[in-house]
Amino acid sequence: MSDRIAQRDGTRKRLKKARRKQLLIRLGTAVGVVALLIALALIFQVRTIHITGNSFLTKEEILQYIEKQGGADNSLILLARTKFGSFPVPDTAESIQFTMKNPWTIQVKVTEKTPIGYVESDGKYVYFDEEGYVLGILEELREDVTKIEGLDVKKASKGKKLSVKDDAVFGYLVQVIDLLERKELASDRILCDGENITLYFGEICVELGSGNPEEKIAQLPTILPMLEGQKGTLHLEHFGDSTDTISFEKK
Transmembrane stretches, by residue range (predicted)? Predict the structure, then answer.
């Protein structure tokens, strides 16, 4: 009888010892996990964000955008969200790439949308894309962008679409600018008057009117050199549609 009691007590002691050991292991694991999380939070705490490629978006706007999307405090969380989660791109950008320079430094490369033109207003330049959305309102003039006149930009704001009667005008402008680039022609400015388009090359005004501009612009590489040094208006608004006649009205 006493042997059974002793055996039972021994079994209880072994069970208690095993449970205590398991508890200590679990407690140690939990402490280790917490310590690891704290270490990761401290080591991968974002202290510096380097931003490149932005001209329309300011550094402050990009930082606010990152903070709004979450993960701005921890580089691991930020990179995980950008690679595997949902991280929408701002309206004025094509893409944003994030890389880790070191655990506490993030490199942000911004690829912004390309403006098709700008409108000058109150000493500032309103740049817009091929769909008419405002990419930025800057005080600096970018020489590689075409000047557009005739569009209302009084209520223009970044990320919003310019107010026009017909959105097709933006597609028409894109077509005209693309055709000019193909012909290696540089227009000083483009006047957009409703459906009608007018090009300016120095003292020469070229009336394209409306409709398909391809045939009309195709005539310019031949005609413009012949008009060098003169002033006036080249009428192409009806060329190709109702007539093959091109007239030049001297100023």
Answer: 23-44
What is the tens place of the pLDDT at every residue in 62-107? 888 888 877 667 777 788 777 776 778 888 899 888 888 888 888 9
Alpha carbon distance 122, 155 (integer Å): 12
* Beta strands, E only, the chain: 48-52, 93-102, 105-112, 117-121, 124-128, 134-138, 146-149, 189-193, 196-201, 204-209, 232-235, 247-250
Residue the block writes with tokens 């999380």: 37
Domain range enclosing 52: 48-112
Q: Is 45 in contact with 104 (CB distance < 8 Å)?
A: yes
Amino acid type, 159: G
Last residue of one domain, picked from the residues 112, 130, 145: 112
Which of 112, 130, 158 is the last residue before a domain boundary?
A: 112
Cα–Cα distances (Å) from 67 to 48, 49, 62, in that order, read 13, 12, 9
CA–CA distance, 189 with 148 (Å, rounded to integer): 6
| Same domain, residue pair 189 and 95 | no
